From TrEMBL:
PANTHER family from the UniProt entry: THIAMINE-PHOSPHATE PYROPHOSPHORYLASE, THIAZOLE TAUTOMERASE
Species for this entry: Pontibacillus marinus BH030004 = DSM 16465
GO biological process: thiamine biosynthetic process
Recorded metabolic or biological pathway in which this protein acts: Cofactor biosynthesis; thiamine diphosphate biosynthesis
Lineage: Bacteria, Bacillati, Bacillota, Bacilli, Bacillales
Keyword Phosphoprotein: no
Name under which the protein is recorded: Transcriptional regulator
InterPro entries recorded: Aldolase_TIM, ThiamineP_synth_sf, ThiamineP_synth_TenI
Superkingdom of this protein's organism: Bacteria
Gene Ontology CC terms: cytoplasm
UniProt domain Thiamine phosphate synthase/TenI: residue ranges: 20-180
GO molecular function: thiamine-phosphate diphosphorylase activity
Pfam families on file: TMP-TENI (PF02581)
This protein's UniProt keywords: Thiamine biosynthesis
Length: 199
């Protein structure tokens, strides 16, 4: 079964993001609030909006802001290279599901050693959110999968048409931004991702 993550893009109004998240919730396992330039108050408001859309706290992940995740009682945090270390988060917040964004085999192995529950690796395919940057590709993804024993979630340029390539590497799931957020019908598109995974 594919683990399906929806990630906010930092540009969309959070009211609109919450409404889309609510619509695709039957197909999506985790909703990430990834808003690097938003205030703590904005992020807290976004969490409450997701809850108003009947998304449970256990399905919500906050990027970087461990303090907000703790105060709001959500499921977990997604850490970046500049975030508090995994070991420190685990020590003080053992209840969290901790993910780490990585870009190499070495970073993924280090995250696993430090106690991450999963890693987010990318970007796999060409992506509008990473213009001009060479994608890592599925072979690099497979290298990370083979070098670690924790779940690897792929991100970057993933579509219903190429999602089966992700599955073949042994990755446990995908994380999507524009694929759902820019779709004419996000609900239908979420179903297409699920179908593409099992083809």
């Amino acid at each position: 079964m594919m683990e399906f993550h929806l990630v906010s893009n930092g540009r969309m109004h959070l009211n609109e993001f919450s409404k889309i998240a609510g619509r695709v919730a039957p197909y999506v396992d985790f909703i990430h609030i990834r808003e690097k330039h938003r205030s703590a108050q904005d992020i807290t408001s976004a969490i409450n909006k997701l809850k108003e859309e009947s998304i449970p706290s256990e399905n919500i992940i906050v990027n970087d802001r461990v303090d907000i995740a703790s105060v709001e009682g959500v499921r977990g945090v997604q850490l970046a290279y500049h975030s508090i270390g995994i070991k420190e988060v685990r020590k003080h917040f053992p209840q969290f599901r901790i993910g780490k964004s990585v870009h190499s085999v070495m970073e993924a192995q280090e995250a696993e050693t430090d106690g991450a529950d999963y890693v987010l690796f990318g970007h796999i395919f060409s992506s509008n959110s990473k213009p001009g940057l060479m994608p890592k590709g599925v072979e690099a993804l497979k290298d990370v999968v083979d070098a670690t024993s924790i779940p690897v979630i792929a991100i970057g340029g993933i579509t219903p048409q190429n999602v089966h390539e992700i599955r073949r590497t042994g990755a446990k799931g995908i994380a999507v931004m524009s694929g759902l957020l820019d779709a004419h019908d996000p609900y239908q598109m979420a179903q297409e991702y699920k179908k593409g995974w099992v083809i």
